Amino acid sequence: MSVIEARDLTKTFGAGDSLVTAVTGVSLSVSAGEILLLLGPSGSGKTTLISMLGGLLSPTAGTVQMDGVGALYQTKDVAETRLRRIGFVFQSFNLLPGLSALENVALPLRLLGVPRRVAAARAASLLASLGLSRRSGARPGVLSGGEKQRVSLARALAAEPNVLLADEPTASLDTQTGREAIELLRTSVHRGGQACVVVTHDTRLIDFADRVMRIEDGRVA
Amino acid sequence: MSHRAARVATASFIAWRNLTRERRRWVMSASALAVAAMIVLFLQGISRWLTVSSTAYLDHSGAQLVVSEKGIEDLLFAQSAFPATALDEVRRLPGVRGVDPVVAVNGIVGVGHTHLPVYLVGFQPRVGGGPWRLVSGTGKPAGAEVVVDRGFASIANVVVGDNVNLFGHPLRVVGISGDTNAAGDFFLFTPIELAQVVAGTPTVSYGLVYLDSRAHAADVAAAINRIPGLEALSRDTVAANDKATITSSFGQPVEILVVVALVAGVLIAGIVLYTATVEHTRDYAVLKAIGAGRLVLYGSALMQSLVLSVCGVLLGWGLAAALGAALDTWYPVIASNLDVGLVAQVAGIIVAVNLLAALLPVRYVRRIDPQEVFKA
């Protein structure tokens, strides 16, 4: 049974002569514990697509259905839904530089109103499971790229979301670190049961995915 | 802790970390706000000093009524003169406990290479009407002796024991008084007989009237007003008239400066607070992307502004106090009265205005596109 399902997603920008169609009629569905790899070159519409799947960009046409939520863009508070249901892993990590690794991971929980100590314990446990227990007090500025991506993954998993969306998760890492990061992501998804969509242009990640969709010029190739 | 309280705590925490992450930048931002606050506080303190100092003599006299020549309703600016014997009639009125005669001479005297406005008070040292706070020496001059204001002494470079030439009379300084600079008009105190010589008339200028505890000031004033050539007003009325003149001549320009400083301060605050928010565009985009609500987003931006403003005001208060102390030490001609009440009032205005200025960054945060997070 699919956890997230998109139907005929289309996104256009501008109007008239300057109308640009970024995504045209893309449909997909991802089940619990499954990793879908959206593979496409730069400018193919991958980021626009993941933005719509994550509730960050409303589609011009089409729908996103999420298990237990319904139509994502018709929910009362899309931001709250993101916080509770969706975890993001970004290419450039996007950790808050003023917070320690532990505080970054605990942030979604604190935003959900989880008491500080409970949030910190959960964050510490996640960091430990990703081999970062000794780096929990470190600020992002002193972490390596691989460590930052692991913290980013821990933050994405902190609120136990149903859906995990990863945008070019290995693009800022060297080959070995990237391989380790995607392996960790796969292990976490298979263990946690999230529906995971990974957007990338890196064909080396194909082996790590359960399913691959190729995107070209905003369409499923 | 409720969800809302947890989110407020998280917003505060993020704001604090945003501010303290780059300490140098934080200090610079707080310093910019502090300078703006200092200027406003300092000027407002001068404005307060102008009004408080203009009535200091009357406020410290303890008199309930002030008797002057008919038609004269202030102390500092008009020249009142009436026969000293007229005060004997006042002394005989029921309810009057005592009357201190005072001779006042307004003028400009040359000291060193400059000229200073002075207000010479001739009084009876054994009775009252003299200086109320002494910095050094005695407050009871006799013969050709004078007590001079501290600012005057500083500019004239005189100390107790020196001689000064005032209104063509060589006088010996026997005391230095404090808080006797009425909005830039330096008080000098001499025996009443000497002041009459300086004034060139044996008349007196004012009578400070002290009443019995059971007497009604209005009744006694009415009785004095029936004496030909005299007018009696309450001390507060005369003080209010002096204050009104000072405010219209000196206070209003200072108030205009205060408003200008406040406007400049708002602009500085706006720029500083806006910059402090823009610097964290990416962070706000991340917060938006992961699902932070408006309470956290706007709360952290506002909290950041509030913390910066409070730090700026506290630092500005310290700077204004230091500036006032420096002025008091090296150029005691004007002063800045920074009492806690005034500081609280001005600080409240500054923080409120800064929070209004913080609406600009809040608007900015509202418009941040969470898709910013996908930029490499």
Explain how this protein is built.
The complex is a heterodimer of chains A (221) and B (376). With 221 residues, chain A is an alpha/beta fold. Helices cover 33% and strands 27% of the residues of chain A. Chain A has six helices and ten strands; from the N terminus they run E-E-E-H-E-E-H-E-H-H-H-E-H-E-E-E. Chain A has helices at residues 46-53, 78-85, 101-111, 116-129, 145-158, 175-192, and strands spanning 2-13, 20-31, 35-39, 61-66, 70-71, 86-89, 163-167, 195-200, 211-216, 219-220. In chain A, the strands form two sheets. Chain A has a six-stranded mixed β-sheet. Chain A has a four-stranded antiparallel β-sheet with strand order 2-1-4-5, covered by helices on one side. In chain A, helix 6 (175-192) links the parallel strand 7 and strand 8. Chain B is α+β, with helices and mostly antiparallel strands and 376 residues long. Chain B is 55% helix and 19% strand. Chain B has helices at 3-21, 23-54, 56-61, 86-91, 150-156, 192-199, 217-225, 235-278, 281-290, 294-330, 340-357, 359-367; strands at residues 65-69, 96-111, 114-123, 134-137, 145-149, 163-166, 169-177, 181-182, 185-191, 206-211, 230-234. In chain B, strands 1, 2, 3, 4, 5, 6, 7, 8, 9, 10 and 11 form an eleven-stranded mixed β-sheet that branches. In chain B, a hairpin with a 2-residue loop joins strand 6 and strand 7. In chain B, helix 10 runs antiparallel to helix 11 (340-357). At the A-B interface, helix 1, helix 2 and helix 3 of A face helix 1 and helix 9 of B.
